[in-house]
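Each letter names a residue; the fold follows as tokens. Both lines appear below:
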Amino acid sequence: MAWIILVVAGIFEIVWAIALKYSEGFTKLWPSVIFIAAAWLSFVCLSFALKHIPMGSAYAVWTGIGAVGIAIVGIVWFSEPATLLRVGCIALVLIGIAGLKLTGSEIDIT
């Protein structure tokens, strides 16, 4: 369950990053409100996940989900370049995220 919460935290990180772009330096109300809400929810979910996942793994996965998500949003939504090198680097981050999950890095709280 902690890993699912961590993925949700990463998704909220993607949302707040998009809202931050649309807030135009916090001059637009609704994107700024969405940013604050999504950032808060992202941190809350991350804090719950940290109860069961080691800090280093949780933080790396959280930021990795955000980085990969925003890179993909940039390519799809904002017409940023999708070069072979860029896509390859995104794939490497995904491999790192999967590797951290597969190492079974859960804290035993029993």
